[in-house]
Specification:
The structure is a single chain. This protein is an alpha/beta fold. Helix content is 43%, strand content 17%. The chain contains 15 helices and 16 strands. A five-stranded parallel beta sheet has the order 5-4-3-10-11, with helices on both faces. A four-stranded antiparallel beta sheet has the order 6-7-8-9. A hairpin with a 2-residue loop joins strand 15 and strand 16. Helix 2 crosses helix 3 (98-115), helix 4 crosses helix 6 and helix 11 packs parallel to helix 13. The two termini are 43 Å apart. Bound molecules: adenosine monophosphate and zinc ion. Zinc ion binds at residues 31, 223, 248.
Length: 459
């Protein structure tokens, strides 16, 4: 049985009832990172959004096949196909090879995902592992008459598609008129590179032979070629960040329309950016916050996840340390409550229905969290609360089932006091035991006597 899900689709600019194209399996493709540097916490907000989407679909009863690419070649410093390849530039900056750079930052990215409880995609695909597929895709575009050659590569002729730019509602005529002077050899301002030839005066580390000469693929072709390979020519959902519709996703659609006659995905979903002090956080501009920057300041990575859940994925979110403190306190309250509730019993169907209604309504996590706080305050039994929260956590992904109070949170002197109290109780010195409990309380801890022995928690 599946629960109906409503999702906001950028293509139609509307909320649409979601139904998989094939049975109950959902094909989900997410534009992955360009691995020339660490991910910043803005990038990670987008992947938390995708993780919530994926978990919600599974919660609603669908099997999700999730594919994510790793851009390890072809993403140039300018989206207009000029400038240097970001990975090759990273190699020059650090003295490592381009391949080492890509490997290093791919691993760092996957480590960030693990720390944030973001589920691993079912398929990871690297652009450099799919050069033949990309060449074949470009040949298909060429054969259909959409490609042309310049002195530095093969370009897509966007004027040949009548609805080019529809996804982003681009003012194509305006863009073309505005950029007439800097066209170079391009026929139209919106045309983009499918294959770039290696520069004559420069030895690239990443380059491959092709029917057009030695070179490397453009950034957009990798996503069209790999998503089609793993999910088919028309699949369920494609995700990315709010920067993607005007260029990257518009060009993915153009390529797939030219070759296969589809708009690639049935739903196009985009996460709104995280801002830092009301300015855009960008990897290429430098000076950004990584997940490790938060960890260095003693924040739990899951507090960042919790912070992101506090805003709808289509709402702007401003990062601040105060907000991180608030998220940390709230998450710890939730963890402590869940821990104290003990073993789970049966989940409460009414609460679960309310929670589900919010998450399937275009992933309304702020409202879903409000349902969770109502549950915490309710007079349901601890066992019911625990079971309900653990079900909800399948979507929240806060790892509440595994959480234990950190042993080091209880200082040694408190542990010694607790042991002394146990001794006093064993010897039936009740007054001493009570006095010691008072000392423990004064130190900021409570003692709960359980069949497994005393459980000590920070007050
Ligand atoms: P990149 O590694 O630059 O290709 O970006 C990886 C992902 O992060 C893409 O989906 C971008 O749309 C997204 N992204 C970039 N900056 C931000 C930001 N400040 N907030 C949220 N997502 C972002
Ligand atoms: Zn992409």
């Amino acid at each position: 049985m599946t629960t109906p899900v409503r999702l906001y689709d950028t293509w139609t600019r509307s909320l649409r009832e979601f139904a998989p194209l094939r049975g109950s399996e959902v094909g989900l493709y997410s534009c992955g990172p360009t691995v020339y540097d660490y991910a910043h916490i803005g990038n990670l907000r987008t992947y938390i959004f995708v993780d919530i989407l994926r978990r919600t679909l599974a919660f609603a009863g669908y099997q999700v096949k999730h594919v994510m690419n790793i851009t390890d070649v072809g993403h140039l410093t300018s989206d207009a196909d000029t400038g240097e390849d970001k990975i090759e530039a990273g190699s020059r900056r650090t003295g490592k090879t381009a391949w080492e750079i890509a490997e290093l930052f791919t691993e760092a990215f996957r480590d960030d995902l693990r720390k944030l409880n973001i589920l691993d995609p079912n398929i990871w695909c690297k652009a450099t592992d799919h050069i033949p597929e990309q060449i074949a895709f470009i040949q298909c575009i060429d054969a259909k008459g959409f490609a042309y050659r310049t002195s530095d590569g093969i370009y897509f002729d966007t004027s040949k598609l009548s609805d080019y730019g529809y996804l982003a509602r681009l003012d194509v005529a305006g863009l073309r008129a505005g950029a007439r002077v800097d066209l170079g050899e391009k026929r139209n301002a919106t045309d983009f590179a499918l294959w770039k030839l290696s520069p004559q005066d420069q030895q690239r580390q990443m380059e491959w032979p092709s029917p057009w000469g030695v070179g490397f693929p453009g950034w957009h072709i990798e996503c069209s070629a790999m998503s089609v390979k793993y999910l088919g020519t028309f699949f369920d959902i494609h995700t990315g960040g709010e920067d993607h519709p005007p260029v990257h996703h518009t060009n993915e659609v153009a390529q797939t329309e030219a070759c296969h006659g589809t708009r690639l995905a049935n739903f196009w979903m985009h996460g709104t950016f995280l801002q830092l002090d009301d300015s855009k956080m960008s990897k290429s501009a430098g000076g950004f916050l990584r997940l490790q920057s938060l960890i260095d300041k003693k924040y739990d990575p899951l507090a960042y996840r919790f912070f992101c859940l506090g805003a709808h994925y289509r709402a702007r979110l401003n990062f601040s340390w105060e907000a991180m403190d608030g998220a940390t306190t709230a998450l710890n309250r939730l963890r402590a409550a869940a821990h104290q509730w003990g073993e789970p019993g049966q989940a409460d169907p009414a609460t679960l229905d309310m929670f589900t209604a919010q998450v399937v309504d275009d992933l309304n996590m702020p409202r879903a969290l409000a349902v969770v706080w109502d549950l915490v305050r309710s007079d349901l039994s601890p066992a019911t609360k625990k079971a309900t929260l653990l079900r909800a956590d399948e979507v929240l992904g806060l790892g509440l089932a595994e959480w234990q109070p950190a042993a080091e949170e209880v200082p040694a002197f408190v542990t010694e006091l607790v042991a002394a109290r146990q001794q006093a109780r064993a010897e039936r010195r009740w007054k001493d035991a009570d006095a010691i409990r008072a000392q423990v309380t004064e130190a900021g801890f409570s003692i709960e006597d359980t069949p497994e022995g005393p459980r000590v928690r920070a007050l």
